[in-house]
């Protein structure tokens, strides 16, 4: 809940606007402001105060607890010009709230959290649990001091600034000693291993149970899969105890648990469900047949009889591959009764991340916020040079940019997938929608199921052009590319003919280039066999870019010489009309009778 507090009429109006914009998300606190702030602070996750920052600082100061639990606080000035993220920028979500408030009120969001203003990812926003000296390492990141990254598993991280160097000296098998271990080793006359960690600031990516030393942050990637077998009625405490003991004995951190895995028949087993809930991880289940096919070290007869597979814990943990770190072990019960749960622990192979991101037709405000987030989530960017230029300013410093020229599509697709397979967070970009005559299909044709793929839709040229022309796509429509570089002309012609016969509105992509000039007239002639010469045709060049232009003409009058590769051509159906200079395709002939 977001608590809203104000002292003046202008503030009260602001509260009302936020309450109206976010139904169900807000509560207005009336009465004396001091009391209102105190109540809201105790009851809400976030506060928006239409008060001076100084007043709010004085009011909340005695209420402050810690960063993790205090609400996020945003202040808005009397004139509604600024939404200031005052407290709980990351943890309390105040930075994001300031942006949202800014959008509703037309106010400028003011964010002063260091990592947000200089493009360095906050360690607490990387999406992994973390432990250690966050303040110290963040300060070092910002101050440009040397920070070593020790990645035991190559889990996909966003770009880190150039002062972060991958620690080559301690390749993936390294173990950071805890301080007592290091001292012990030194005392025993061994190598003083702590000295190896002389670089004071470190970022470690590991699932091993190690203590963060001074100046260290340990990021916990979701790398551990816990396979669980349980008899009917196994208590959650017994399951949890088993998991924690198994991890502790193996020197692994429970913060790296990705999921609990078991057999379908146990999907609703209350002890497993509750254990997962308390750990904050999902339960993933597999069919008995699939589990029975997994090669495991410790099969047994009991689960075979009960659920139809000789192994549940080991098989469910191993079924998607990985390294078995803890073979099957049973729970122990203080009352001496038989164990009711088994578990096995597997380190799953690191999965790289491939985001296929559509940048929209050109204008910055037609780039979706999600696309922006994915660009900032990536450490490697792959794309056509001219598209990279379009978004270079959005990338985090340190992002590795692999750009190439026109015609290198296959190479780009292969590079993007190969980088993701290496465990990187990759963004593969395309203009418009990256799945429309663009990079998504060649990339996914290369990719196997060992990487995660995320698609971000973009505004494709046909839609950008339609919005400029009016409403040409109001009824069934198709896009057809006239490029016969990779598609035989006969195939293209057959599709144009089918669209012509089916009376479908058609948008032509890649309509004409210097070397390809006869295809567009030919395609238009085919459509003209089934449509009047007066059928409206919209020609849009560089939609949403600086030199945008558009023209509304007809099938008979279109001059192909005015069309080039920066253009899309939209041909109406037999019902499309020009109305007040706009291209309009009716929703349907019986629309007025209310049949749609
Ligand atoms: N993935 C892109 C299409 C790539 S094919 C998308 O979804 O929009 C390239 C063709 O798209 C160009 O030849 C042109 O016909 C069209 N196109 C792309 N961007 C355009 C724009 N801003 N204005 C007009 N046409 C555009």
Give the secondary structure arrangement, pairings included.
Layout: E1 2-6, H1 9-21, E2 26-29, H2 33-43, E3 46-50, H3 53-60, E4 72-76, E5 82-87, H4 94-105, E6 108-110, H5 114-118, E7 130-132, H6 134-143, E8 147-151, E9 164-166, H7 179-187, E10 202-205, E11 216-219, E12 224-230, H8 236-250, E13 257-263, H9 270-279, E14 283-286, H10 288-292, H11 301-307, H12 313-318, E15 323-330, E16 341-347, E17 352-358, H13 369-377, E18 380-384, H14 385-391, E19 400-404, H15 409-421, E20 425-430, H16 440-446, E21 451-456, H17 461-469, E22 470-471, E23 477-481, H18 489-501, E24 505-509, H19 519-528, E25 536-541, E26 549-554, E27 567-571, E28 577-579, E29 582-584
Parallel strand pairs: 1-2, 1-3, 3-4, 5-6, 8-9, 8-10, 10-11, 12-13, 13-14, 17-20, 17-21, 18-19, 18-20, 22-29, 23-24
Antiparallel strand pairs: 4-5, 7-11, 12-16, 15-16, 24-27, 25-26, 25-27, 28-29
Helix pairs in contact: 8-9, 15-16, 18-19
The structure holds S-adenosyl-L-homocysteine.
Q: Can you characterise this structure?
A:
The longest helix is centred in the middle third of the chain and has 15 residues, at 236-250. A hairpin with a 2-residue loop joins strand 28 and strand 29 (582-584). With 596 residues, this protein is α/β, with parallel strands linked by helices. It has 5 domains: 2-112, Rossmann fold; 123-219, no CATH class; 224-347, CobE/GbiG C-terminal domain (Nucleotidyltransferase, domain 5, 2-Layer Sandwich); 353-459, Tetrapyrrole methylase, N-terminal domain (Cobalt-precorrin-4 Transmethylase, domain 1), CATH 3.40.1010; 462-584, Methyltransferase, Cobalt-precorrin-4 Transmethylase, Domain 2, CATH 3.30.950. The strands form 6 sheets. It has a 6-stranded mixed sheet with strand order 2-1-3-4-5-6, sandwiched between helices. The model is unreliable at 169-197 (pLDDT under 50). The radius of gyration is 30 Å and the shape is globular. Helix content is 30%, strand content 24%. Bound molecules: S-adenosyl-L-homocysteine. S-adenosyl-L-homocysteine binds at residues 361-362, 430-433, 436-438, 460-461, 464-465, 509-511, 540-545, 565-568. Residues 36-116 form the Cobalamin synthesis G N-terminal domain.
């Amino acid at each position: 809940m977001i608590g809203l507090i104000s002292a003046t009429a202008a503030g009260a109006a602001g509260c009302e606007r936020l309450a109206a914009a976010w139904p169900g998300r807000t509560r207005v606190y009336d009465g004396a402001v001091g009391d209102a702030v105190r109540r809201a602070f105790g009851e809400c996750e976030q506060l928006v105060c239409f008060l001076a920052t100084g007043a709010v600082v004085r009011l909340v100061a005695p209420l402050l607890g810690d960063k993790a639990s205090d609400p996020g606080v945003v202040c808005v000035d009397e004139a509604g010009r600024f939404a200031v993220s005052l407290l709980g920028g990351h943890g309390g979500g105040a930075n994001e709230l300031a942006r949202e408030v800014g959008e509703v009120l037309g106010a400028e969001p003011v964010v002063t959290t260091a990592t947000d203003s200089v493009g360095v990812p906050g360690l607490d926003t990387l999406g992994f649990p973390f432990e250690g000296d966050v303040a110290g390492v963040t300060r070092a990141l910002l101050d440009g001091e040397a920070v070593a990254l020790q990645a035991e598993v190559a889990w996909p991280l966003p770009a880190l600034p150039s002062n972060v160097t991958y620690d080559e000296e301690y390749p993936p098998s390294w173990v950071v000693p805890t301080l007592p271990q290091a001292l012990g080793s030194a005392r025993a006359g061994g190598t003083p291993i702590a000295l190896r960690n002389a670089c004071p600031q470190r970022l470690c990516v590991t699932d091993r149970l190690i203590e963060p030393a001074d100046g260290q942050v340990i990021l916990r990637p979701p790398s551990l899969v816990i396979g669980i077998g349980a008899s009917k009625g196994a208590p959650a405490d017994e399951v949890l105890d088993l998991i924690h003991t198994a991890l502790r004995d193996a020197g692994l951190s429970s913060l790296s648990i990705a999921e609990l895995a078991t057999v379908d028949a146990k999907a609703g087993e209350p002890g497993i469900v509750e254990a997962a809930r308390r750990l904050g991880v999902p339960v993933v289940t597999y069919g008995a047949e699939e589990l029975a096919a997994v090669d495991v070290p410790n099969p047994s007869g009991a689960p075979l009889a009960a659920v139809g597979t000789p192994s549940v814990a080991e098989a469910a943990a191993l079924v998607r591959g990985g390294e078995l770190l803890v073979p099957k072990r049973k729970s122990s019960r203080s009352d001496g009764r038989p164990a009711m749960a088994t578990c096995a622990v597997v380190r799953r192979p690191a999965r790289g991340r491939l985001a296929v991101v559509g940048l929209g037709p050109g204008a910055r405000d037609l780039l979706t916020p999600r696309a922006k987030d994915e660009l900032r989530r990536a450490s490697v960017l792959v794309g056509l040079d001219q598209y990279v230029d379009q978004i270079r300013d959005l990338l985090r410093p340190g992002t590795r940019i692999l750009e190439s020229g026109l015609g290198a599509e296959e190479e780009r697709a292969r590079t993007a997938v190969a980088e993701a397979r290496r465990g990187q967070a990759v963004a593969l970009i395309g203009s418009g929608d990256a799945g429309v005559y663009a990079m998504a299909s060649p990339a996914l044709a290369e990719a196997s199921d060992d990487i995660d793929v995320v698609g971000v839709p973009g505004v494709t040229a046909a839609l950008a052009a339609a919005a400029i022309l009016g409403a040409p796509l109001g009824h069934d429509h198709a896009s057809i590319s006239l490029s016969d570089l990779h598609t035989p002309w006969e195939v293209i012609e057959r599709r144009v003919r089918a669209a012509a016969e089916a009376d479908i509105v058609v948008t032509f992509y890649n309509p004409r280039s210097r070397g390809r000039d006869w295809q567009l007239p030919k395609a238009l002639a085919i459509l003209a066999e089934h449509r009047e010469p007066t059928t409206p045709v919209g020609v849009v060049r560089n939609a949403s870019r600086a030199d945008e232009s558009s023209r509304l003409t007809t099938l008979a009058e279109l001059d192909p010489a005015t069309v080039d590769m920066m253009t899309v051509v939209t041909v109406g159906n037999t019902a499309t009309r020009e109305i007040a200079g706009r291209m309009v395709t009716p929703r349907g002939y019986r629309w007025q009778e209310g049949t749609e």
